[in-house]
Amino acid sequence: MNLLLLLVILFAGFNAAAETARLRIIVETDAGGDPDDEQSLVRFLLYANEWDVEGIIASRPRAIDGENLNSERTGLGIIRRLIHAYGECYQRLIEHDARFPDPARLLERSVPGYNETQDAVKLIRRAIESSDPRPIWYMDWGSNEGSATNNLRRALDEILLERGAAAYARAKSRVRLTGYDQFGPHTQTAPPWKMWVNTFEPPINGRRWYHRFSAITSDAGGFNLLRDVLTAHGPLGALYPTNTTHWAKEGDSMTFLYLVPTGMNEPYEPTWGSWAGRYGLHEDARGLHRYWANQSDAWNGSTNRDNTLRRWAADLQNDFRARLDWCVQPRAGANHPPSPMINGITTPAILRWSVHTGQQIRLDASKSMDPDDHEMSFMWSQYREAGSYQGGWDFRSSESNVEFTVPADAAGSTLHLILQTTDTGTPPLTRYGRVVLDVTTADREQAIIRNAMQDPKDSSAELSLHRPLLTFKNGSAVHTAQDWSVRRKEISREWTGSMGSWPEMESPTSITLLSEKRRDSFVQARVRLQLGRGGTGEAWLMTPDGVTRAPAVLVVYYEPETSAGLNPNQEHRDFGLQLARRGFVTLSIGTPGGNAWKPELGGASCQPLSFHAYVAARCWQVLAKLPQVDSNRIGIVGHSYGGKWAMFAAALWEPFACVAVSDPGVMFDETRPNVNYWEPWYLGADPVSNRSPGIPSKSNPRTGAYQRLMASGADLHEIHALICPRPFLVSGGAEDPPVRQFALNHSRMVNRLLGQTNRVGFTTRPGHDPTPDSNKSLYAFFEVFLQSSGRQQSRALEN
């Protein structure tokens, strides 16, 4: 049976791909009120090994007499009492998992969040304003009379007042929420929250989701609070209070159970389901990432909201039981969860494949492991509600393996399969594997890119605006491919003469491995590049598993982290990550010297943008040397500044097989401030006159190569022509609106002379930023022209 592993993805959306997968977490609790906060804190501390706990904030200065029976009478005192009990279990806990945080660290990060104190506000600001690229997941556990004002609200108030709107927007973009709306005007103030999952609401049939945790889990799988928590499970379990309105109420636990990495859940996909149930868009979301518990699952003969949690309830309670055992038992005396592995990939990685209808799929979990050498059972199931395909299909399963054919009517849908791996320990523990199938027809890529690559109607008016390409400088016409070869050199000499020559290319390029780790279906390596006159630079190299002679793409941008998907504040710019997931070797690099506005040229005399192209050429040499890479199939891509860089690199270094550029400004245009080739960090560098930034004017005239090129009547259509006949895609936006596609007709005329069609493409979107749809076309472009023979694919586009 054939298995085509087209794409394996650890789905991280636009944020979760920081260098470490561990989430940063802050909890704000009104401990001292309803005792269920203390119940949830007991469970939370037993999962503290799974995250980086940045803070625990006490918002209630005084416990409620009568309702709360804790001997400590302040919120902070209650939290610290629980942490001290955790500390008494700590030496046992680290036998089971060395990642449990030191209790002293937790105490240091547990602070009062009372109205008259600033400790919590300072803690929040330090976390948000730190250089750590990972966002903060902020959990508010609710409040009532006697609690302080929410401290995230106070911190944002302060940032807005002291540092202004830009700093406020940056701070707010660093936060993800699980909890109630306690944030006052910040819920309406732009920018919107990046992610907000309300694990408490809404009421359905008069029942808040907050109250359903008790009803669904309190005895799930035979869980017994007296036996499994309160008796003989150490000082932390003994502090679990029982005087709540609902037995084992734990109304706040779903805020963090949503984030436990079980192999089933993805924090940025609430609709997929987790140990906190399954969530849907809030009715007032209006396109925002705002979710709450309004979904239902069909399970065991009924369909209701409770099933979104009930189907996992026994598993999560058994896991809690085991962790309480860890408090008192040595490693050999307690159970530990298994590690499912699907087709060689270990969870909690979520596998996402691009497959086509009729494809034969085989999933193999036989190499799953159990740390205690227990026997394991395996169950595969379709999670219908989590996907968009509502039909069913036949599984042919044999213990750990499953085989099936992708349904013929599933094109355009997603299918979710869940593997439940359960050991035979006491209590039995379960971990999951999730496989997400994006189903297309077999010619998906051609279909996506076909319209973009078709020639638009000729615009003679647009062509007349620019110097003709198919005319030599002496006025004679270019008639043949051989003539074009001569004409191309003529254009190249003029541009190189204006921009300055590159340093020599003979000096060897080298690559030094600094670190590496498995990520998804590839190895992610931090590397240092020695680029001769280009100096050194650090980059991210991503190499898919098992590839030989694979296509590769160089990704250029301000810094390499964004392209590698390691910058959560730059959405839809992670070209290196997404292409690696599609089977490409990718190398993500940043500005030479690190400052795009003051690029280091290593003593070179050429214009900065030309020097950028030189650096890209040296990176091509690095990729071409790798045994995993086919040197005939190396492309380049970039967005905005990176788009300019990629376009010039492909024009000036012919070995690049194809190029895609995202909204760089593909023609000179002095009415658009961001089409700024005139700036000294692009083409306006001048040893005599260092112009001020901004559109050229009488008081701030053109300088450098830009002045010379404009004076001669040159424009970027000549740079495009230097790319011909290699495939070239412009992913246009604000700086490259639809009218720009007609300027590309110059290159189409050259390609027709060379016997090529469907080699120049254009897509459009309303704004500058890339979008999922624009990126879909961009990735399809590389899949069409690099994954197999570009000539064959070009012919396929004509059909």
Structural class: alpha/beta
% residues in beta strands: 15-25%
Mean pLDDT: 90
* Number of helices in the DSSP assignment: 23
Distance between the termini: 30 Å
The largest sheet has its strands arranged as 20-21-22-24-23-25-26-27-28
pLDDT < 50 stretches: 1-20, 789-799
Nearest-angstrom radius of gyration? 29 Å
Number of strands: 28
Q: What level of helicity do the residues show?
A: 25-40%
Shape: globular
Give the biggest beta sheet. Answer: 9 strands, mixed
Verbal overview:
- Helices cover 30% and strands 20% of the residues.
- It is α/β, with parallel strands linked by helices and 799 residues long.
- Strand 20 (510-519) and strand 21 form a beta hairpin.
Brief synopsis:
The protein is α/β, with parallel strands linked by helices. Helix content is 30%, strand content 20%.
Task: Provide keyphrases for this structure.
alpha/beta; 9-stranded mixed β-sheet; 8-stranded mixed β-sheet; 23 helices; globular; disordered N terminus
